[in-house]
Every structure is written in C-alpha cells, then in structure tokens.
Amino acid sequence: MIDLYYAPTPNGHKITLFLEEAGLAYRLYRINISAGDQFKPEFLAISPNNKIPAIVDHQPVDGGAPISVFESGAILQYLAEKTGKLLSKELRERTATLQWLFWQVGGFGPMLGQNHHFTHFAPQPVPYAIERYLQETKRLYGVLNTQLTKNAYLAGEHYSIADIATYPWAVSHERQRIDLEDYPAVRNWFERIKNRPATQKAYALAK
C-alpha cells in the first residue's frame, strides 16, 4: 500500500497518473496548501522541503520498514523501479527516459511555474518577468515538439515516466498562453495521453 500526500497540482497529478497506470493500491491524503498543511510537523517528517507530492511505501521491495520519498521525479523513479513499469531496463531507453524526466523537473516544470506566477498570481504586473518566462515557455515547448516529431513518446516508442512527468504541466497550456496548434507533435502526444483510461481516472480524483 502506498500513502500519497497530494494536492491537485501538476506535480501531484504526476503520481496519481503513475499509480493508476501501474495499478498500485494507494491511499490519498489531501494536503491543503492554502491552509498551510505542508508546514505541519507530521508532513515535514515525510517531505522536509514542505512541498507535495510525497509518498510512504508500506511494502518496500527490501521487506523493511516503510520508506518515505519526496520530490516528484524521485517518486516516479522509485515507483517505476519498484514495479518494473514505465522505465525500461534496457540501457539506452532507460537513459533517454531519465534524461527527459530530469529535463522536466529541472526546466519544463520550474519555468512554466514561473510563467503561471507572473502571469496570474504576482501582486503587481512585472512586464519583464512575464515576457521572459513566456519566451522560455515557448522555447521549451519547441524542444518538446522537436523530440516528439522524432518519437511517439519522449524516450522513444514507449510511454514512460518522462511522459507522465511532462503531461500535467502541458495540461495548463492555455494559462501559459500556449496554443498547441503551434506545436503539432505536442498536440498529438497530448491528446493520446489525455485519452488514456488511467489519465482520465487520475484527473477525476481532482474533482
């Protein structure tokens, strides 16, 4: 059994997407970020960076005590290795998957997050920041489009944790002022993932 500490954000959706794809049993614990749940000592014991998502695995593969994991990319890698799903054991495909996973957690997520903040949440407009992060968002969608022009999925022909990590950030493309018509390979990839049964079930949880 996996305990998932979650809020319906792009990073939170990554983990429900994986758990639904893999068919793992899990319990969902909502963390009310607006109320400050992420700063409670019991949550900080699991996620010392006071961010969601975080998990506790009560049945780790070594048979030992429950193990907690924080940071969405680390959680995806941990769960993929636990289940043997969505991360190839073949050297080249595994390497490709991990490098695109790290591309998402190091760039695609943080830069789009800054786009969201300065466009929608900053207490006063900062035109330079708005333009800077819009242009970086467009550049990153261009990188994504180029990769998906060559491959069905980010790491090749197989759906993987790299796609699971990236998709939830692309869900908010309209808020990022991105038109997927300008990125046809991304649009095709996006629609295929959107229509997966596990994706639909994971997003239904957010409602």
Helix and strand arrangement:
Layout: E1 2-6, H1 10-22, E2 26-30, H2 41-44, E3 54-57, E4 67-70, H3 72-83, H4 91-121, H5 127-150, H6 161-170, H7 184-194, H8 197-205
Parallel strand pairs: 1-2
Antiparallel strand pairs: 1-3, 3-4
Helix pairs in contact: 1-3, 1-6, 1-8, 4-5, 4-6, 5-7
Provide structural commentary.
This protein has 207 residues and is α+β, with helices and mostly antiparallel strands. The chain has two domains: 2-86 and 200-205, Glutaredoxin (3-Layer(aba) Sandwich); 91-196, Up-down Bundle (Glutathione S-transferase Yfyf (Class Pi), Chain A, domain 2), CATH 1.20.1050. It contains eight helices and four strands, in the order E-H-E-H-E-E-H-H-H-H-H-H. The chain has a four-stranded mixed sheet with strand order 2-1-3-4, covered by helices on one side. The longest helix is centred in the middle third of the chain and has 31 residues, at 91-121.
Keywords:
globular, four-stranded mixed β-sheet, 4 strands, alpha+beta, 207 residues, Glutathione S-transferase Yfyf (Class Pi), Chain A, domain 2, single chain, 2 domains, Glutaredoxin
Task: Please give the share of residues in helix.
Answer: 55-70%
Which fold does the CATH topology of the largest domain refer to? Glutathione S-transferase Yfyf (Class Pi), Chain A, domain 2
Q: Catalogue the unreliable spans.
A: none
CATH architecture of the largest domain: Up-down Bundle
Read across the widest sheet, the strand sequence of neighbours is 2-1-3-4
State the order of secondary-structure elements, H for helix, E for strand: EHEHEEHHHHHH
- CA-CA gap between termini: 23 Å
The number of helical elements comes to: 8
- Biggest beta sheet summary: 4 strands, mixed
The coarse silhouette is globular
- State the secondary-structure class: alpha+beta
Number of strands: 4
- Mean pLDDT over the full residue set: 97
